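Holo model, LADIRMRS. Inputs:
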Amino acid sequence: MERSYRVETRYATAPDQVPGMTTEALRRRFLAEELFAPGQARLLYSHEDRMVIGGVAAGDAPVELPCPAELRAEHFLQRRELGVVNVGEASGTVTVDGTKHELGARECLYVGRGAREVSFLGGDFYLVSTPAHTEHPTVRVGLADAEPVRLGSQEGSNDRTIYKFIHAAGIRSCQLVLGVTVLEPGSMWNTMPCHTHERRTEAYFYFGLPAGHRVVHLMGRPDETRNIIVADRQAVISPPWSVHCGFGTAAYAFVWAMGGENQAYDDVEQVAIGEMR
Ligand SMILES: O=C(O)C(=O)C[C@H](O)C(=O)CO
Ligand SMILES: [Zn+2]
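Output:
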């Protein structure tokens, strides 16, 4: 286990810090730009609900999940749980304490607190981890097991399917809630009308966006929004007071993941479109 590994730390942001921030300042605080590098695991530690997000671009040689010095832990999952989504096109393998789990494209693995050795092979994996107070079993979950919910419409440019993987009525966890939303070709908008959830932080990781295209991600208080232009395989951290929604210049998918006070997906403050500023 690599113990000298350091993560980038992002401190929490209050909403009154946002007015006046330059584009660059917004990006430094909320956008994770470089999560994937060949043969490496890259992690970012946010103080928003102590969520860790990361990426592993594993080739033919296994890549271990490092334990950042910042965690002051014996191993990464000593006090944490982990969600893994294969965001590549090919299937890949996640090995947890000697047991291999094969993940196809867009499939998910929940890894419970206490697992000591996690390694990745032959795929591109997005990771989200939150603190955990107890152990839940490590479980693989495929798209078909996720009870897909089709939302939106073609006329609204937001025809999309939400796959809930880790949630109160699905794969059990301590606080992590995680799923994937896939937009139909021709649909560009996610999460509109948008919402906040004062009790949970959320991170959106956009993927499957063709080269040269971007997602315009809206964040901030509903009456004081800003935008962040996001490329493929980048993530935006959304503090509990911030809306999180966006439109792409082409269809895309995204992993959404939350941690915080509760796991109630519906516990949101809905924002009417006309209230947004
Ligand atoms: O497209 C959507 O709408 C979403 O995927 C919304 C996310 O699931 C979300 O923001 C959950 O709080
Ligand atoms: Zn949300």
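The first strand starts at residue 8 and ends at 10. Residues 195, 197, 202, 244 surround zinc ion (ligand 2) (CB under 6 Å).
Archived with the compound record.
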